[in-house]
Amino acid sequence: MTRMNSFIPQTEVVKKRLMFLFLMATVTIFVAFTPNYSKPSIKKIVIDAGHGGSDPGNLGTGRYKITEKDVTLDVAKQLGTYINDQFPEIEIVYTRKDDSYPTLNKRVEIANNSNADLFISVHCDAFTKPTAKGSSSFVMGMHKTEESLRVAMKENASIYREENYQQNYSFDPGDPDTYIALTLRQNAYLDNSLLLSQKIQDQFRTRVGRVDRGVRQAGYFVICYTTMPSVLVELGFLTNEEEEDFLNSKDGRSYMASALFRAFKEYKTEIEGESSGEETIVQHPTPVEKPKEEQKPKDIVHVDSKWTEKIKYRDVSGVHYQVQIVTSSARLTIKPENFNGLVKVDEYIRDGIYKYAAGKTTDFEEARDMQRILRENGFPGAFVIAFRDKERIVIAEALKGNSK
């Protein structure tokens, strides 16, 4: 679409404006606004096949009749089948099951009205250079690069295909300034969204041999307005002949759906803190940054008698558990007023993002109890994480015991 060329910021003025808006957004502490995350288990997932109906998505090289809308629908339905086969207790909600076109507003409405625990949107990428290749995953966030802004504007341009879009949206996909408002909506679920998207990229790279374009933050409409952890996946470039051939093959689409499923299974295991009973790929642990002031705190006794007293921080080492409560693109000052009154909060850095955890215990059930308390008191996205000394490990590995 020729109109898209005008969307890409070309001047230093726009770039400086975006940087200013980004800095404004990063100081936000992430507070959730729905009761959806009070449940420790994943019971419902919305799977969104991008485009459809009158919107074919990108057409690829023109060598195939199949377009983006066909690839995304097949992969989305296969993913849902894989999940239901192993986890029949999980309800799968599709934004479309056929060659129809739900508006972007409708897709968001389906997800939010279903009170889902997770939203996965499946797409294929395109670029003017036929050599561009690779798979990527996007979560909501300010556009740190012009590439992220380009991709978000490309997908959001589907709005222009809808009738009366001016009346239906207060959102202009061609205006970079509008993305700041969207950035603040998904902050409550950023950490879980990042967790799943990184697992997706790991699976694409290690199991399917795809070029890894990484996890990025961008302002896709469908992951801005969904009130749950949300990831938008670009399976590959249909404008690249090699990747187009792969995604047009039955095996290629099955491999990608299977990779998405394995990533989800790992995510579910880590979020719920339970073993899936099958092979779990252990994440490469990231060293935890030392705090500015080295401390060896014992159990914290709070000065008040509120819920914070129940969040125990024990002087332990080896395999132990904490509860992650906040994620931020910028470093936060650790003080009670920034964390709903919590006195002791640990900071560590993973994937270039500052992460903050409360409590510390070797008892997994005690950690789950603290998770519940934190979710009820201002941290609805809280989840249990595990460490071996200062190395982050997956819950399933921690539950096997400190054997290493």
Textual characterization of the structure:
The chain is α/β, with parallel strands linked by helices and 404 residues long. The chain is built from 12 helices and 11 strands. The strands form 2 sheets. The chain has a 6-stranded mixed sheet with strand order 2-1-3-6-4-5, with helices on both faces. Strands 8-9-7-10-11 form a 5-stranded antiparallel sheet. The protein is elongated. The N terminus is likely disordered.
Main attributes of the structure:
404 residues; alpha/beta; Aminopeptidase; Alpha-Beta Plaits; 2 domains; 6-stranded mixed sheet; 5-stranded antiparallel sheet; 12 helices; 34% helix; disordered N terminus
Helix content: 25-40%
Q: Count the helices. How many?
A: 12
* Text of the CATH class of the largest domain: Alpha Beta
- Tell me the major beta sheet: 6 strands, mixed
How is the largest sheet built, in terms of strand order?
Answer: 2-1-3-6-4-5
Mean pLDDT: 75
Computed Rg = 21 Å
CATH superfamily of the largest domain: Zn-dependent exopeptidases
Structural class: alpha/beta
Order of helices and strands: HEHEHEEHHHHEHEHHEEEHEEH
Instruction: Characterize the quaternary organization of these chains.
Output: single chain
End-to-end gap? 56 Å
Low-pLDDT regions: 1-39, 169-186, 275-305
The shape, in one word, is elongated
At CATH's second level, what is the architecture of the largest domain? 3-Layer(aba) Sandwich
Strand portion, in percent?
15-25%
Tell me the count of domains. Answer: 2
CATH-defined topology of the largest domain: Aminopeptidase
Number of strands: 11
